[in-house]
Design goal:
Layout: E1 12-13, E2 24-26, H1 39-44, E3 49-52, E4 62-64, H2 68-79, E5 88-93, H3 98-111, E6 116-119, E7 124-126, E8 129-130, H4 140-152, E9 157-161, H5 164-168, E10 177-182, H6 190-193, H7 196-204, E11 212-218, H8 222-228, E12 235-238, E13 245-251, E14 256-261, E15 267-272, H9 279-292, H10 297-304, E16 315-318, E17 324-328, H11 333-343, E18 351-355, H12 366-373, E19 378-381, H13 391-399, E20 409-410, H14 414-424, E21 430-434, E22 441-444, E23 447-450, H15 453-465
């Protein structure tokens, strides 16, 4: 420690633009910037102290640590009074289903009359108030601050997505989870993790007895079955033949009639107001988490039956005849395969898919995305968020996985691609617009332009309905 050891701080941040008077600025060395270069900026903004990995020429008390990134979480948690210990915090990790599972967990808790919070890809919310959060799982300083806000606003239960990046980078260290859940694992983010074994290890790291009370694991997934066999925690398994299981009695594009079997012989039938057979898995994960929190089967069923439409998750833009148009966030091979398989039984005519892959992200999954999309009758390849990459090059990589007998339509302009698919659709057909879901912007060449698949699709539907 350099300087006053008794200095008191009221907040912690790694972003010099977010420094508040009396706060601690943590200098993190990132991939594009070194936080140590912004310590003087933090001082001018009113920082009371700095946490650094090397001394800097700034006249503020300096806590010197070996790795500021790894030290962020425990320091931020301590500054905010370890807020996770004052909440029933549920963390959900896995490749697909995290968002829907957290929404369902929150719906169950709300139905029970509790004040709830949500942290994830679509939104971060304390009770009914939205909180800005650009990441699925916030950086450590933001995460602890958000949890502290939850406590201040009387939140009792929080459902949070735990991404593999967050786990690998230590964003949720020094956080206590009453329950942690695992949904499934399939190829994604291998640009960051390198291989599936490392990706699995990142997810499995959440299930540490030092920070988790009970694990809820989907054992229908082979990685989940492996995880259930190695965790040193109380475990509630979900899936066929598991502690908590279920089967679909009847399905539509907008709902699932489910027979759910709880431990101790409790069987309950419920109508989940979400389509897609894959949502059985998400409902079981949510039920398992809330069961682990001590909720009764009756409370769980009541909450699931009041589940909201999750933005951008199998979201029906037009379910009216003659054409169905649906937007979904599916952006992995397994996700694309699942949503197309879910729609096929409910599509009288052809299944048309509009799909692309994000730039500056895992390139290895792109051919497999094309192969999964080829299950549709008509494939329209387009841009997703190309970011700094050439959209044509990304499309070419996706196309490389499509079998030769399938001839895709290529339209790099996403708005035109959506319009084309909607205009091509015939009575009884369904158009699936995949990849961006709830997103309201498209990132390309260093800028983000306003773009919402749902709005573009509605405009295309309107044009389709106009007389020529």
């Amino acid at each position: 420690m350099v300087g006053d050891r008794q200095v008191r701080v009221i907040d912690a941040t790694h972003d010099s633009r977010q420094v508040v008077a009396g706060g601690l600025f943590i200098a993190v060395v990132g991939t594009s910037a070194d936080g140590h270069e912004f310590c003087a900026v933090a001082e001018k903004a009113g920082a009371a102290a700095l946490m650094v990995s090397r001394p800097v020429a700034v006249d503020l008390p300096q806590l010197i640590v070996a790795d500021t990134r790894r030290a962020m979480a425990p320091v931020a948690a301590a500054i905010h009074g370890n807020p996770s210990r004052r909440l029933a915090l549920v963390g959900v990790t896995g490749t697909n289903g995290k968002t829907t599972s957290t929404f369902l967990i929150e719906a169950i808790a709300r139905s029970k009359g509790l004040v709830t919070g949500l942290i994830g890809t679509v939104m971060t919310r304390a009770a009914d108030d939205l909180i800005p959060n650009p990441r699925t799982t916030p950086e450590a300083t933001d995460f602890q601050r958000i949890l502290a806000v939850m406590v201040e606003r009387g939140v009792q239960v929080v459902a949070a997505e735990a991404s593999s990046h967050a786990l690998s980078l230590g964003r949720i260290e020094s956080t206590w989870f009453e329950v942690a859940a695992f949904t499934n694992l399939s190829p994604d983010h291998l640009d960051f993790h390198g291989d599936m074994e490392s990706y699995f290890a990142a997810k499995a790291a959440l299930f540490d007895p030092e920070r988790v009370g009970t694990a809820v694991i989907n054992v229908d997934d082979p990685h989940g079955a492996r995880l259930a066999g190695q965790v040193a925690l109380p475990v509630v398994t979900v899936g066929a033949g598991a502690d908590l299981s279920g089967e679909i009695i009847e399905s539509t594009t907008r709902s699932l009639l489910i027979e759910m079997r709880f431990p101790d012989g409790f069987d309950r039938r419920l109508l989940l107001p979400l389509g897609g057979t894959f949502n059985l898995e998400n409902a079981l994960v949510a039920a398992g988490c809330t069961y682990a929190l001590g909720y009764t089967p009756e409370e769980i069923v009541a909450g699931l039956e009041q589940a909201p439409q999750i933005p951008g998750r199998l979201e029906t833009v037009s379910g009216d005849h003659p054409v169905t148009v649906i937007v979904d966030y599916a952006h992995t091979p397994a996700g694309i395969e699942a949503v197309l398989a879910a729609m096929r039984p409910h599509t009288a005519g052809r299944l048309l898919v509009v799909v692309g892959a994000g730039g500056d992200r895992d390139r290895s999954k792109r051919p497999a995305m094309g192969a999964a999309a080829a299950a549709a009758d008509v494939v329209v390849l387009t841009s997703d968020n190309p970011r700094s990459e050439d959209p044509a090059a990304i499309i070419s990589q996706v196309m490389s996985g499509i079998p030769r007998h399938v001839v895709p339509i290529v339209e790099p302009d996403r708005a035109r691609a959506i319009d084309l698919a909607v205009s091509m659709a015939e009575p009884g057909d369904a158009v699936m617009i995949l990849g961006k879901g709830h997103e309201r912007g498209q990132e390309a060449a260093g800028r983000i332009a306003a773009f919402d698949d749902r709005l573009i699709a509605r405009a295309a539907i309107e044009r389709r309905g106009r007389p020529t």
